[in-house]
């Protein structure tokens, strides 16, 4: 399959990672998810927010 | 004649701009960036719902220490699903048919899971090379086999995605060519071939989604072993 072994291998690799890093990660990261509303009082449990943990 | 069917995967350029650059940059218009609003519009709500469900499902079997990979794996999943699905539309270029891109995604992700395991829990990671309950004489051979299988993982990851998508696109082109040329000589057979083409297109739709999911799922499995 000659078309699957062309010369710009490195460029394609770098460009796809560049698009991932600059465009896709920020878009996904801006999505914030709220916890489900609970029927119990807040004194009983404090759910921790989940916001794309990084560390 | 056969080789000309592979022309759909060659890197063409239109007015000086390579098509792969367009295929990689333009799809993200379909995903609006959410602002800091409590209530979003329907499209954002749907996307947020899908992303949340997929990420939740993906990270259920992984220890909480591995949840820092959530952004990376969710983004790669959305990336691959979008590119695969848009490639099924006629006259579009599918970047995931390029082995360079898939290996560029597979090798770093796999290597990262291996290095994380080797750094934080080296004994536990090495223990994965030997399944529980192996008879003692088989241990050396099994260690070698498991090491080889460990190194084949990134190659398999990249080539699986490339081959599935390339084969799917190729089949669609072949069968549609057959249906077209048969329409002049044997119309009934041509209609049957068109029916086959319809089924194949539905299969391609499923394959596009599933292959992207399998890619990310396997990376999460490798992560599960290391974290």
From TrEMBL, chain A:
This is ATP synthase complex subunit 8. One of its GO terms (molecular function) is proton transmembrane transporter activity. Component of the ATP synthase complex composed at least of ATP5F1A/subunit alpha, ATP5F1B/subunit beta, ATP5MC1/subunit c (homooctomer), MT-ATP6/subunit a, MT-ATP8/subunit 8, ATP5ME/subunit e, ATP5MF/subunit f, ATP5MG/subunit g, ATP5MK/subunit k, ATP5MJ/subunit j, ATP5F1C/subunit gamma, ATP5F1D/subunit delta, ATP5F1E/subunit epsilon, ATP5PF/subunit F6, ATP5PB/subunit b, ATP5PD/subunit d, ATP5PO/subunit OSCP. Its main location: mitochondrion. It comes from Scleropages formosus (Asian bonytongue). Belongs to the ATPase protein 8 family. It holds the Pfam family ATP-synt_8. It is a single-pass membrane protein. The lineage of its organism: Eukaryota, Metazoa, Chordata, Craniata, Vertebrata. It is found in: Mitochondrion membrane. Subunit 8, of the mitochondrial membrane ATP synthase complex (F(1)F(0) ATP synthase or Complex V) that produces ATP from ADP in the presence of a proton gradient across the membrane which is generated by electron transport complexes of the respiratory chain. ATP synthase complex consist of a soluble F(1) head domain - the catalytic core - and a membrane F(1) domain - the membrane proton channel. These two domains are linked by a central stalk rotating inside the F(1) region and a stationary peripheral stalk. The keyword Transport applies.
TrEMBL record, chain B:
Keywords: ATP synthesis, CF(0), Hydrogen ion transport, Ion transport, Membrane, Mitochondrion, Mitochondrion inner membrane, Transmembrane, Transmembrane helix, Transport. InterPro entries: ATP_synth_F0_asu, ATP_synth_F0_asu_AS, ATP_synth_F0_asu_bact/mt, F0_ATP_A_sf. GO terms for cellular component: mitochondrial inner membrane; proton-transporting ATP synthase complex. PROSITE patterns: ATPASE_A. It is a multi-pass membrane protein. This is ATP synthase subunit a. The gene is ATP6. Component of the ATP synthase complex composed at least of ATP5F1A/subunit alpha, ATP5F1B/subunit beta, ATP5MC1/subunit c (homooctomer), MT-ATP6/subunit a, MT-ATP8/subunit 8, ATP5ME/subunit e, ATP5MF/subunit f, ATP5MG/subunit g, ATP5MK/subunit k, ATP5MJ/subunit j, ATP5F1C/subunit gamma, ATP5F1D/subunit delta, ATP5F1E/subunit epsilon, ATP5PF/subunit F6, ATP5PB/subunit b, ATP5PD/subunit d, ATP5PO/subunit OSCP. It comes from Scleropages formosus (Asian bonytongue).
């Amino acid at each position: 399959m000659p078309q699957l072994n062309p010369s710009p291998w490195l460029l394609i690799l770098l460009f796809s990672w560049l698009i991932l890093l600059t465009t896709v990660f920020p878009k996904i990261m801006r999505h914030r998810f709220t916890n489900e509303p609970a029927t119990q009082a807040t004194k009983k449990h404090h759910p921790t927010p989940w916001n794309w943990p990084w560390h | 004649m056969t080789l000309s069917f592979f022309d759909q995967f060659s890197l063409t350029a239109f007015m000086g701009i390579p098509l792969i650059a367009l295929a990689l940059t333009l799809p993200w218009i379909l995903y609006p960036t959410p602002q800091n609003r409590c209530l979003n519009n329907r499209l954002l709500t749907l996307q947020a719902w899908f992303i949340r469900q997929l990420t939740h499902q993906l990270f259920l079997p992984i220890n909480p220490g591995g949840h820092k990979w959530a952004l990376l794996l969710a983004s790669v999943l959305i990336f691959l699903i979008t590119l695969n699905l848009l490639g099924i539309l006629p006259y579009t270029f599918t970047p995931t048919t390029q082995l360079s891109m898939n290996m560029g995604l597979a090798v770093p992700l796999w290597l990262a899971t291996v290095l994380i395991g080797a750094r934080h829990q080296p004994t536990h990671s090495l223990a994965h090379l030997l399944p529980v309950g192996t008879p003692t004489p088989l241990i050396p051979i099994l260690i070698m086999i498991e090491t080889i299988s460990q190194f084949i993982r990134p190659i398999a990851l990249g080539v699986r995605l490339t081959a599935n998508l390339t084969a799917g696109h190729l089949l669609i082109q072949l069968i549609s060519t057959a249906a077209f040329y048969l329409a002049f000589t044997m119309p009934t057979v041509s209609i049957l071939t068109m029916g086959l083409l319809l089924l194949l297109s539905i299969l391609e739709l499923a394959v596009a989604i599933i292959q992207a999911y399998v890619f990310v799922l396997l990376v999460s499995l490798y992560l599960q072993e290391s974290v």
